[in-house]
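Purpose: get a first structural picture of the assembly so the mutagenesis plan has something to point at.
Setup: two entries, given in the order below. No constraints added.
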Amino acid sequence: MKKVLEIGLGIVTSVGGFLEIGSITTAAQAGAAFGFQLGWSIVLGTLCIAFLVEMSGRFSAVSKHTIPDAMRERFGANFFAVPLIVMLGVSLLVLAAEIGGVAVAIEMATGISFPIWALPVAFVSWALIWRTNFSTIENGVSLLGLVTVAFAVGVAKLHPDYGAVARGFVPSLPSQDKSKYWFIAVSVLGASISPYLYYFYSSGAIEEKWDETYIGTNRAIAAIGMGFGGFLSIAVLILAAMLFHPRGISVEHYQQLPELLSGVFGRKGFWLVIASLAIACLGATLEIALSLAYLVAQGFGWNWGEDLAPRDDARFALAYTVLLLAASIFALVGADPLKLTQISMALTATSLPIGTFPFLILMNDKDYLGEHTNGHVGNAVVMFISLLSAILGVVSIPLELIGGG
Amino acid sequence: MKVNLVADVLDEQIKDSKGRQAGRVDGIVLELRDGKPPRVAYVEVGPTTLLSRFNRRLARWYSRHDRKLGKDRGVAVRIPWSRLARDGPGYVMDIDAESTPIFALEDWLRQHIVDRIPGARR
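Result (structure tokens, whole complex):
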């Protein structure tokens, strides 16, 4: 019974963690610009993150190591510095985008422009982490995050042609706007495969003292939770494909997002999108800030833990404080959250192999996992999709920049 | 028992006698002895040692600034090899980290910043 509850809670958490500014925006852009055609990028991204999350949970349950911890001891400080710096840099931009997302949601609700909200949003996020423990954050935000299910309800009401949706799950070449097509595909991949998600998950497994008996639980959570998260992303894509694509509307501003549901639910839909955006981005803000603080603390061997009071892990506590403050500067100076999201998602996708390849080596190391090392399928899926993301990113980011965005 | 210094010791987590995470093995110091085989004397913990693995100038810069923060600062913390034992995924030392300068930065930050913010004790 306890395990069933844990699986349920885990799934809710993963769904809450999946949909955030990146997934909502990129899925909406994909649907608006190319109808159902880019559905495959969400499917591939979801598949990859489901495997990565399963691996990171299994890794920590069996080896009692978090990922950064093992990366440093297995590959040494000099190697570890590379994924550390890349991850910090890219995720700081993602964090900035999430803070921008919450701020924009408040702007749409109040009419007061978003830069004003940057510092208050960062402060509230910081206060939540400072004052509460790991499970309160994880469970509270994710329960609220279920409001994003509204996107799926909206799709059901629109009665899309499910055959056409399914055809989009098979990759196909675009007939026009080639560079835009690939750039959006890369952003979608980056939005789905968020490295902070599996780093966070591995620290969570340690905080909650998982052992080998959790391998099955972990597998169920990863598969169902990430699957459901991907399903919601696809719902956003379908809504945009049906409401924006036929009218030739492309998603250039956040202000357009509420139309995804206001077309179906009227005024209520407007508020549902705003609530989804605010909660999902706040949840992601907390997870990314914590996840980066874990990364640094574990890499340097500091005392860490969300269940400790800040004075018992002062360096860890100050790490997330500084990161939140630094990330809020982007929205504070008025950096366009939509552009920031696109760029940070594309960079995430491009830099994926820097984190996933060493992680795969760990996942195949018997010293850490004994008999629970990876199978061929998991290795192949993660290697293939992260390599594909990186190649598409390297090719499409310059084209997109030359093309003028 | 054989221990491979780079694979099994370097960069491993160290816990102190009270179970706190007390840094990582940032460096290993061997003692060369006349007519006898070299032996492991200390492991070093701290940013000075860690930085010197990347760039000596950076390490010197750090230690110059660190020195201003109090006595025992600006040099790597050395833990005798004999005080360390294997413990689960890392190492444990039979020393309270508070009696070493390992937590100097942590303590400084706690006193000067964290404790002044409401809710630090939770």
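The mean pLDDT of chain B is 90.
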